[in-house]
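Researcher: Quick one. two chains, 827 residues in total.
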Amino acid sequence: MGDIPVTVHKHDALIVGAGGAGLRAALEASKSVNTAVISQVFPTRSHTVAAQGGVAASLSNVEPDDWVWHMFDTIKGSDYLGDQDAIELMCRMAPEVVIELEHMGMPFSRLQDGKIFQRRFGGHTKNFGKEAICRTCAAADRTGHAMLHTLYEQCVKNHVIFYNEFFALELLMNEGHVVGVLAWDIANGGFHIFHAKATLFATGGYIRVYKTNSNAHINTGDGLSLSLRAGLPVEDLEFVQFHPTGIYGVGNLITEGVRGEGGYLLNKDGERFMKRYAPTVWDLASRDVVSRAMAEEMRQGRGCGPKGDYILLKLDHIGADLIHERLPGIWELAYVFAHVDCTKEPIPVTPTAHYSMGGIPTNRFAEVVLGNMEKPEEPVKGFYAAGEAACASVHGANRLGSNSLLDIMVFGKVGGKRMAEFAASLPEHVPLPENPGRKGIEEVKNLLNGNGPERMGAIWDELKETMEFNCGVFRTEETLTTQRGILKKLCERFKKVGIADKGLAFNLDLIETLELGHMLDFSKAIVEGALARQESRGAHYRDDYPNRDDVNWHKHTLATMDEDGTIYLDYKPVRMKPLTVPTFEPKERVY
Amino acid sequence: MVKTVTFSVFRYDPEKDTRPYYKDYRVELRRPGMMVLDGLNQIRWEQDGTLAFRRSCREGVCGSDGLNINGVNMLACITHIEELKEPIVVQPLPSMPVIKDLVVDFTDFYAKYYLVKPYLITKTPPPSDRERLQSPEDRKKLDGLYECILCACCSTSCPSFWADPNYLGPAALLKAWRFIADTRDEGADERLEIINDRDGAWRCHTILNCVEACPKQLNPTEAIAELKKAIIHRKF
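Model:
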């Protein structure tokens, strides 16, 4: 392999990732500074496109609502691990960002009076938990698609610069500043250095590390590992959301909107078991509660089917017309993936790995921050993160449904504005470090020139199967210790990995192998965080420590990685002080 | 004994091959309901890492894996292997330049999408603190239009699109009608100006391949007919 050229590009603001958070940030930053977006896929193919049920905002279009109720629900949903300043900001800004989307042209479904349609969703209530409320704004069950396309359309209109099918290889830092990234041109091959005054990671979540999941192939958490490798921390990775209703056998998502519209879960006795687990809102409890209830039913032998390994989601009683009008995408998915006509029969479902609560630590301005129990948070100059890649933390230990599309709109907007202000304040770019991107270039060249005997497929298979088994809905010291050992072995094997494709043009073998390296790195942080956290909170459930322990564990996990790949844990306090309202103190969590 | 099926896959590596060829692989059907994408992944992860294709959401909504499978354009991720005749011939979308194997260059397809001004155009400012109102009936006019995933299955199945390199094609035209049909949009004139052209709506000869090809069951031909009507109404 001869020398592969390195091209340098210079922009004021650089956004990595073109999902909802990245595009919203790009729209904001491009108003005032030269802004470029690099994306692994063409923007409308980002995973936001798959979001179904909606985006939460207290618009009060159906019934009176209040952002403080939304804030309370989000904090309770987070099992009190969410940072209350960021949560207040998000819930207050929700109506504004949703209305902006409508003004941009997003095709929301409508109520009879012409206002944006809103539906019920898990964990969203009126009056501090009294009963379920219609808060989730939807475009049928294709809200993410409608949102992502609308945002991209606006980027086209506003001439945002895109580098599509570019894969980030290394986060570049100099003099304590983040100064851009090194990336690989997927279609043609070749290294590209993007030199920027401010860089925002909107690189998405890390769920592909689980075998049964609802996520796109690209959700391999690359941004997290790039941060870890640059010596920066990641936060709360042990909190992985398992969505209650993945299609049995494949894991594809069936929106919570099905239950919001009146669908419910049944065990093999035809019982609506959720009434035993969540006496007030039944099937509309938050996702961690419902997933655990389903898993518990199956553990106790009340699962459906010959193996007792699924639960039924019944919705035919809401009527074919309503299903076709409000849940057309679900009808299609159930039909294609489960061979079920859900207007007539229930859908077989199991919990499916769905969302990463953890991510790159940020404050409420989407600035990436350092800090711990002793040192207060301090921003890393020039570095921002938003969306599923980030941990603000608005979701704490468990995210409420329809708060993710909200998160990406709010912190995309806030981060885009903030990074543009920072970029504008710098007269010059901070120079690139000496020999910029050396590690990323070596990583690629070693794969292209090397001849390792291991293959990514086999290692990845074992990784995702064992993560699911040992670090899934239920965890114990034993399973997590086992997984720690497995990861150690897999990392050793990965050192001997080779690729079959040695070409430059669209080398998927190279990309998938790089992604596997990312997954191995942050999986260690998931497992170490989970092993250390001797309590159960939100989505992190330890059979050996079944209760929440606020005395010892009401704090965020921070993980860093040293040169040889060892993970170190540290902690930081939860930001309990909201901006304008009194603190919501931790309480027992009952739905 | 696990049942296997033969995939005959179009291969082309621009750095090595002077011409494309087909390579056969045996794919094991390990569970019911496997999709063509599952087969391609099995090939890549277990047999031949050099195979390249695009994929992401694996549920028919991101539009990455439009392919020509047994002669018909479809999405690999929502096409059941068991419903296809053997050998399953997997080719890139027709009429687009091949980058490698099943990966084609979308530059021309996107350029045509940009040409129709694919964004809401408004002249009247929206209310400052709330959404614009739109009746459910008016919103219904967008059903069957807004769901497009830009997979290019329609345009690359269209003989007019193959024959005329300047033809906007069904995907771009459907997108144009999605905005013109939106009661909130005020850009119909500027869009119709572009579309009223021999390479615009008038190049459609209602062959209907696009309707057949669309994996989202949309009807670009009908949208193009609406555009033609709108152009004529505008004249008189």
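The two ends of chain B are 69 Å apart (CA to CA).
Researcher: Thanks, that's what I needed.
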